[in-house]
Amino acid sequence: MSQFFYVHEENPQARLISQAVNAIKNGGVIVYPTDSGYALGCLLGEKEAMSRIARIRQIDNDHNFSLMCRDQSELSTYAKVDNQAYRVLKHNTPGPFTFIFKASKEVPKRLQNPKKKTIGIRVPDNVIALALLGALDEPLMSTSLILPNEEFAESDPEHIRDILEHQVDVIIHGGYLGQKQTTVIDLSDGDIEILREGAGDTSAFF
Fold it and tell me: pLDDT value at position 169?
């Protein structure tokens, strides 16, 4: 059975964040809040944890996961970021955007888009998520918690607990969240291409 933590939305309790981080570092799968609903996450190299996430969501193992980073500097370790992209990131992170970049050598090939060698990367605008990432001191391999036959990420942690308490290691209750997708922007080829309109405002890109 999973651990279920009530974490303060504005002042996350360090003790609970530390316990969640320990579970992640032991190969666990976590449910945590972001600025676009709840997400599933695990460490970058944990194949079994990623397989568990794939089973929960009923997706293929080659599904395009995203890397959830705490800030721009961490993001640049895993992505090839040029000057134009830095300006875009400076004005739009943290925020409800997923950015597509060419992956750096730090990203395992099996996690890259097989044709484009790209990776999706986020810096979430959520206090709990950022506290978790800061304490973890590395990115989370992450995907929105969209259950089979549903369109949007889950927003009710109590409902998530009812369904997944035997399938994940930690569920963080960080409030009841809105159901909104991120805006997806492809910066991998030197241009700005908006692949999906979502919660992130794209007016500044035109």
Answer: 98
Q: Domain-by-domain residue ranges, the chain? A: 3-200
Considering the domain delimited by 3-200, tell me its CATH architecture. Answer: Alpha-Beta Complex (3.90)
Q: Dump the DSSP string for 134-185.
A: HHHTSPEEEEE---TT-SS----HHHHHHHHTTT-SEEEE-------PPEEE
- With beta carbons less than 8 A apart as the criterion, state whether 37 and 153 touch: yes
Q: How far apart are CA 187 and CA 21, in angstroms?
A: 31
What does the pLDDT look like over 86-108, one tens digit per residue?
889 999 999 999 999 999 999 98
Q: Which long-range contacts (CB under 8 A, 24 or more apart) does 46-53 make?
A: 46/141, 50/141, 52/167, 52/168, 53/29, 53/143
Taking the complete model, does pTM exceed 0.90, yes or no? yes
The letter for the amino acid at 132 is L
